[in-house]
Design a protein that fits this description.
The protein has 504 residues and is an alpha/beta fold. It has three domains: 169 residues, no CATH class; 125 residues, 60s Ribosomal Protein L30, Chain: A (2-Layer Sandwich); 177 residues, Fe-S hydro-lyase, tartrate dehydratase beta-type, catalytic domain (fumarase, Alpha-Beta Barrel), CATH 3.20.130. A five-stranded mixed β-barrel has the order 14-15-16-17-19. The protein has a four-stranded mixed β-sheet with strand order 6-2-7-12. Catalyzes the reversible hydration of fumarate to (S)-malate.
């Protein structure tokens, strides 16, 4: 009978979570590299290049791929002949592993979990608890699958119950464009079919743990209905032209993974969950011989990419920016930002709203007049870092505050990831402001452009506090210009037409 030591299990969880914070799975690196090599859209190709460069930097520097280091999801298969030398329960051991991983002094990870989710939403400070799914199975081993799921992609999860005669493919193609680019494509789609509502969602999440192998399926052809669906969805989703970061291009998904389960004759439950450009998952087996060993990928897996010196980009001094200057920028234009900008996201915006509604002044140092705000929740720095990985968060979550910020604070520009909604775009146009997009999934690369950071207000909010960053040539793209033109509308529309004209 296999005997699993408590410490081996806990340390394996901790080591695996550290491992996936800075190593992309090899299958993802290879698939993204191939997509980058064949991409014809300059904007999408540049976005994928930044993601690949960031990925290599993180592998070399052992720092997080993304500032959102994820909610931990654990799938555990416990052999029924396994015994434990432990005084903690299974969930307690998993959470202790999470606690160790996210507080590792050499690679601090961002704590994103909040308790009292419908109330105070207080950060638990150590990223616990994990979401744990457990099965008892025959055997003498413990099989562990771990994922660190970012909020940007998790928030785009979708579920429906179709009529049995309805088309699953049509539902996916109708639903996916409405998900926007906040899930940071190119990534994977996990689809669960059948069972009950909760079973379909679980199937979709489990499907995302599988390796990318659509290229092999395309070579040998489908063997069953699930293979046929994967191939059909892969081709038709990419034909939508959404592209990397929603900018328009040939590749939106690198693979489509599907799991199914028998269901009621009257039902067709379908769940869809995307994985983002910061795909993080790993699996290992414990057999009583000690903690898990994880082999890092070879650096040869990454392409050598030179991002260039910014030739052709507009260089902007944020410390002397004016509304008249930003009115000359055009959607799709590349910008290099230098100077000072403030940070803030959901919780900070809510506090600002409360202060303004009460007629109270903003905290000292919080002056948005003729300034830009960066939607970011950075990782804490280690060593001599100014700030840890600091990529953009999904801008659409701030849409409800956009009119307030532009109309009442003097703000003239915003930096985030993904598209803006119709109301936010109208507000941007009305006030002659601008929205800039940084690449999601390139957080460590972005952090290298940040040369200074200081706390300004709301320190109790942790990663959601308002800081002032000093940046030097931070790369961004004009996503919504002062005239209201959005590249997240024009780009996919243009590439949908181009893809339709490509030879079959």
């Amino acid at each position: 009978m296999t005997r699993i030591e408590q410490e081996d299990f806990i340390q394996s969880i901790a080591d695996a979570l550290q491992f996936i914070s800075y190593y992309h799975p090899v299958d993802y690196i290879r698939a993204l590299r191939a997509a980058w090599e064949r991409e014809q859209s300059p904007a999408a190709r540049d976005a994928m290049a930044q993601i690949l460069v960031n990925s290599r930097m993180c592998a070399e520097g052992h720092r997080p791929i993304c500032q959102d280091t994820g909610m931990v999801v654990a799938f555990l298969e416990i052999g029924m002949e396994v015994s434990w030398n432990a005084d903690m329960g299974l969930a307690e051991m998993v959470n202790e592993g999470v606690r160790r991983a996210y507080s590792h002094p050499d690679n601090l990870l961002r704590a994103s979990m909040v308790s009292d989710p419908a109330g105070a939403r207080s950060n638990t400070r150590d990223n616990t608890p994990a979401v744990i799914h457990t099965r008892l199975v025959p055997g003498e081993r413990v099989e562990v699958k771990l994922a660190a799921k970012g909020g940007g992609s998790e928030n785009k999860s979708r579920f429906t119950v179709l009529n049995p005669s309805a088309s699953l493919v049509e539902w996916v193609l109708e639903t996916l464009p409405g998900m926007g680019a906040g899930w940071c494509p190119p990534g994977m789609l996990g689809i669960g079919i059948g069972g009950s509502a909760e079973k379909a969602m679980l199937l979709a999440k489990e499907a995302l743990m599988e390796p990318i192998d659509i290229h092999e399926l395309r070579v040998h052809g489908p063997r069953n209905r699930i293979d046929e669906l994967r191939l059909e969805l892969f081709e038709k989703v990419n034909a939508l032209g959404i592209g990397a970061q929603g900018l328009g291009g040939l590749t939106t998904v690198l693979d489509v993974k599907i799991r199914d389960y028998p269901t009621h004759a009257a039902s067709l439950p379908v769940a869809m969950i995307p994985n983002c450009a910061a795909t993080r998952h790993v699996e290992f087996t414990l057999d009583g011989s000690g903690p898990a060993r994880l082999d890092p990928p070879s650096l040869d897996e990454w392409p050598q990419i030179d991002l260039g010196d910014g030739a052709g980009a507009r260089r902007v001094d944020l410390d002397h920016i004016t509304p008249e200057e930003i009115a000359t920028w055009r959607a799709g234009e590349r910008i290099l930002l230098s100077g000072r900008l403030l940070t803030g996201r959901d919780a900070a915006h809510k506090r600002i709203q409360e202060l303004l509604e009460q007629g109270r002044p903003l905290p000292g140092g919080v002056d948005f007049r003729n300034r830009f705000i960066y939607y970011v929740g950075p990782v804490d720095p280690v060593g001599d870092e100014v700030v840890g990985p600091a990529g953009p968060t999904t801008a659409t979550r701030m849409d409800r505050f956009t009119e307030m910020m532009l109309g009442q604070t003097g703000l003239i520009g915003m930096v985030g990831k993904a598209e803006r909604g119709a109301a936010a775009i109208e507000s941007i146009k009305r006030h002659g402001a601008v929205y800039l997009m940084a690449v999601g999934g390139a957080a460590y690369l972005v952090a290298k452009a940040i040369r200074g950071s200081r706390m300004i207000a709301f320190e109790d909010l942790g990663m959601e506090a308002i800081r002032e960053f000093e940046v030097r040539e931070m790369p961004v793209t004009v996503a919504v210009d002062a005239g209201g033109t959005s590249v997240h509308r024009t780009g996919p529309a243009e590439w949908r037409v181009k893809i339709g004209k490509l030879p079959g």
